[in-house]
Specification:
- The structure is a single chain.
- The protein is 51% helix and 18% strand.
- It is built from three helices and three strands; from the N terminus they run H-E-H-H-E-E.
- A three-stranded antiparallel beta sheet has the order 1-3-2.
- Strand 2 and strand 3 form a beta hairpin.
- The two termini are 13 Å apart.
- The relative contact order is 0.21.
């Protein structure tokens, strides 16, 4: 498994776990958790979004995009 695939899978699992407890995930959460640069996180999230693995929600209060899995039963 490549480093990129491993990172993508870890981020997806993190979003999925937060979704299962009704929490959405922002880029800043992933940055703090994994220490990955925000630009790289955005690329990974765009890929997961394009593959319909996550959905994007705009949070008016925090003025940022937040993410959650389409379904808590989904796997990478």
């Amino acid at each position: 498994m490549s480093k990129d695939t491993d990172t993508t899978e870890r981020i997806f699992e993190y979003i999925k776990n937060r979704s299962e407890i009704s929490e959405t995930t922002a880029i800043r959460h992933i940055h703090r958790r994994f220490g990955i640069v925000e630009e790289e996180i955005e690329e990974i999230l765009d890929k997961l979004f394009d593959e319909n693995k996550i959905r994007k929600i705009y949070d008016e209060e925090y003025q940022e995009n937040r993410f959650e899995t389409q379904s808590s039963n989904q796997s990478f």
